[in-house]
Amino acid sequence: MVVGLGTNAGTYSLDEVLYSLWLAYGNCCFVGAWQCLACWLAFLGPRYFLFPIELLLRKQRLVDRFLPSTYFPRVRALIENTTLYKVLRQMPKGGALHLHVSASFSMTWVVNQGADDPPLGSLAFYNATQAPRACRCRARRSEGCAPGTHVLIQKDKDFPQKLLKLLTVHEEDESLTSAEIWKKFADIFIRVAGFFTYREALEGYFWATMLEFLEDGVTHLEFRVDLFHDQGFLFDLDGREYRGAAALDVYQKQIQKMQVRHPELTVKLIGTSIRMRSPQVIAEDLAFALEVKAQRPDLLVGWDAPGEEDAGHPTLDYARQLLELKKQAKAGLELPLMLHDGESDWSTMNTVDAVLLGAKRLGHGFNIVRHPLLMEKVREDGVAIEVCPISNQVLRYLSDLRIHPGLQMLKMGLPVTISSDDPGIWGARGLSHDFWEVAVAWQLNTRALKTLARNSRLGLKGISELLLNRTFKATELEIFPGHFVTKR
Ligand SMILES: [Zn+2]
Predict the structure, then answer these.
(1) Which domain of life is it from (predicted)?
(2) What pTM, to 2 d.p., does this model score?
(3) What is the CA(130)–ligand 1 centre distance, in A?
(4) Domains in the chain: how many in total?
């Protein structure tokens, strides 16, 4: 029997075909149901239950360019051409716990919609803190407004390509340092921020994002969304403004519409400030987030302050404000901390502080491996770690994913989950590219892949009952039964 592995296509054994079949069997319950093919294979014995991915990797090791050690934008197309990628697209992957809403889906969509779809075609791609420029132009009928995309295309037919290049990372960005690529990242978010202040633009993108992840076998999504007390609101073209809970309702409406079609989908939001803000301003953002939490307790499930760790405030700078938040929790208003910490090759103190502050999740958290006792505490407390492998490589924290600390965490039994962070910026889709990278780089067998998927769902139970409604709980425990941590 023959199965293709893209550029490394060749003849493979029955074992390899069975492995593909196993993963491809999208509805595998993994609990021994008689109607489940994968469970029948498991029943045949440990040889199949612990099916080694090495069989699929044998030829990967012999090629002159090992894909997970190469900058993702250089090898994305090669990965997509493999059978393993196509199989992983079909595999249920649980939840994506770490996504930033304005970069979680294709930037090509942003450019195309901006170019083709009036009134989006009349919006400018900047001005993050105020209403979309088109809104102000229309309202005031003023002269001298920045031209919209459709006007720019009339002047230069290559404009969409030029714009797309400004919104994405490329092969040549491999030569940038971590600080330089972060600067590029910041520019991208500034460029698209204005676009996403327009309610209809956000709705369209958010809808397309949910569909993308559903097609990728991901049924629970959590998005970091801006929740500043003084900016980042949504607008209609007639000037209507959506702040706080009203802005969250814009997301909720789309989620409920999607759940009619896909009742298996659950979506939650994590409100964010940014660690570049002063502790005093962060305190105001936290107070604002708490107000919103009181109004939309089921939708808003956490708080975070993302941003480049080495350039922004250390977590300790606003620890006092976070401790105040914990006092509120004792008073009955809980907003769990899900902190971007541990995304640094320099200091690991943010990771230590995040755990001591009682964070329920660590965003990235890869430098925790330098603290064995901290790892032990994280395992005991069930603090899920949102590992984003491709993001870490793109942002130049490491080059070769074989040495990504996530593997050590997984082997130590920490509740590791896989997320894709900002996949739209580097052209990844859903979670499959990240799963492919870790499956190949870490040489994971089927059981480990299932553990990663299961951690992303059962991890929620360990975080807070607030995150789960009854329907979700029942459904998920049926689909992903078992224990939170990896069995050793
Ligand atoms: Zn992130």
Answers:
(1) Eukaryota
(2) 0.83
(3) 24
(4) 3
